[in-house]
Q: What sequence folds into this?
């Protein structure tokens, strides 16, 4: 890595230092002092509001995770979808609270999308592992990342990334979550072209209207500088959705009902309060995969899981820090080591909880966009997750069409950072573009980061500037190169 400061650092160093260190006055309470609320220019009310917004933006995982993992559940019925839903909320709540208390960062965690799909379709259905054996590999993946964090390797890798590539990561994540939001809301769908607007190029059905209403409410309130615009948009569209459902009676979206609700039906249920079941907890076989597949194949699967999880958090915490103006002059968030440790432990917790690897969520940017700057917001989000173990039916009442408005709007907020990249310098502009483009197009944060890293690596070598590439960038770029061809490697070894 070059010793020269990045354009990002030059532009943001003064702003960031002043905003973090001088934005607020003296602490007004023990709570204020512990979380540095005033110091970071926030208030308790903003933190609570941000915690609620993040929770609502993430609540879909309580529905989606059980649905995805149900494809891999054992046939004996010892693990149920209800148990997975409760455990998903429990693990997410505990780890998010830990992030708030020990890292003091507005970052929430839950079962990772993509990682849960790898459990169901790659580990169980693809490799023939049992559900418990798959969770064993998840645990060892988390343990490996934890070791890398404690030895300083993961943090060192993070700091070795050029500043403008970090900006590109933030921008790419913004486009990615906007794309996720549009897909979850049914605004963008598969069609005659790879994707298209709505159904046959038109927005059809009540759910699409709910999304449009929520997004327009958020936009209008934001431009009018109304506090809580994102949260108000979610709540307003949810209320309209409940009314529409009561009158029209729409079902869940399917091939026969393309204009139905995407993930959950917004309706009140008689059993809004129920005791949770945690039948997925401790459903784990630590060494079964090594015996069934062989050590080498098992290690390759762990390697694949690790890389899928390794850089998502790096990109996410940078994006959150950039949105909240919390990064230092080098583009690093405060307490980087603590953030990475909690995230790594969350992967292990996900395996022990039987709910797949838990990781940091880009949806946390919704809460930051609402004003959250400290770990208090994470504590609020975590408490709401814990409460949702009892109130899963109420959580499910929020349709994805309402929650997705926050993702799309925050995508705009994160996109504004693109001006910090020096587009006149192709040696950084091309890797930045590849990073930004591949995240939404490949539907993967990790793939976008990897493509950007490999492109940067190749360009530096092509320019004869090998000495500007740090040892860690060498290692990580080569790891990603291997990751991109893991399929052929596994075929050769099978």
A:
């Amino acid at each position: 890595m070059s010793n020269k400061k990045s354009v990002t650092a030059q532009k943001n160093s003064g702003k960031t230092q002043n905003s973090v260190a001088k934005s607020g006055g003296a602490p007004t309470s023990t709570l204020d002092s512990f979380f540095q609320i005033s110091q970071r220019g926030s208030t308790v009310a903003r933190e609570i509001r941000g915690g609620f917004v993040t929770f609502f933006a993430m609540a879909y995982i309580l529905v989606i995770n059980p649905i995805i993992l149900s494809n891999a559940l054992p046939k004996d019925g010892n693990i149920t979808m209800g148990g997975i839903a409760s455990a998903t909320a429990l693990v997410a709540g505990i780890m998010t609270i830990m992030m708030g208390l020990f890292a003091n960062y507005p970052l929430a965690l839950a079962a990772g999308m993509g990682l849960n799909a790898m459990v169901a379709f790659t580990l169980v259905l693809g490799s023939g592992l049992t559900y418990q054996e798959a969770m064993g590999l998840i645990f060892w993946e988390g343990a490996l990342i934890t070791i890398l964090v404690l030895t300083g390797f993961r943090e060192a890798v993070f700091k070795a990334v050029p500043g403008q590539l970090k900006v590109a990561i933030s921008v790419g994540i913004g486009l990615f979550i906007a794309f996720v939001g549009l897909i979850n809301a049914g605004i963008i769908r598969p069609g005659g072209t790879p994707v298209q607007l709505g159904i046959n190029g038109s927005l059809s059905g009540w759910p699409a209207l709910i999304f449009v209403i929520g997004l327009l409410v958020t936009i209008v309130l934001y431009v009018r500088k109304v506090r809580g615009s994102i949260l108000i948009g979610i709540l307003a569209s949810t209320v309209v959705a409940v009314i529409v459902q009561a009158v029209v009676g729409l079902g869940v979206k399917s091939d026969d009902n393309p204009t139905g609700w995407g993930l959950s039906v917004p309706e009140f249920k008689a059993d809004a309060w129920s005791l949770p079941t945690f039948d997925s907890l401790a459903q784990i076989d630590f060494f079964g995969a090594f015996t069934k597949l062989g050590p080498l194949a098992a290690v390759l699967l762990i390697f694949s899981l690790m890389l899928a999880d390794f850089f998502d958090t790096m990109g996410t915490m940078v994006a959150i820090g950039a949105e909240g103006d919390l990064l230092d002059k080098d583009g690093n968030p405060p307490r980087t080591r603590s953030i990475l440790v909690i995230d790594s432990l969350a992967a292990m917790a996900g395996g022990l909880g039987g709910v797949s690897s838990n990781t940091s969520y880009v949806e946390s940017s919704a809460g930051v966009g609402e004003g959250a700057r400290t770990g208090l917001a994470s504590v609020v989000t975590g408490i709401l997750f814990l409460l949702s173990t009892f109130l899963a039916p109420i959580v499910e009442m929020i349709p994805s069409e309402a929650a997705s408005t926050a993702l799309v709007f925050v995508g705009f907020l994160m996109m504004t950072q693109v001006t910090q990249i020096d587009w006149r310098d192709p040696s950084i502009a091309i890797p930045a573009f590849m990073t930004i483009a591949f995240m939404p197009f490949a539907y993967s944060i990790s793939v976008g980061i990897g493509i950007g890293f490999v492109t940067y690596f190749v360009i530096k070598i092509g320019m004869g500037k090998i000495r500007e590439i740090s040892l860690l960038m060498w290692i990580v770029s080569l790891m990603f190169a291997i990751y991109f061809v893991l399929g052929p490697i596994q075929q050769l070894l099978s």
About this structure: The longest strand covers residues 109-111.
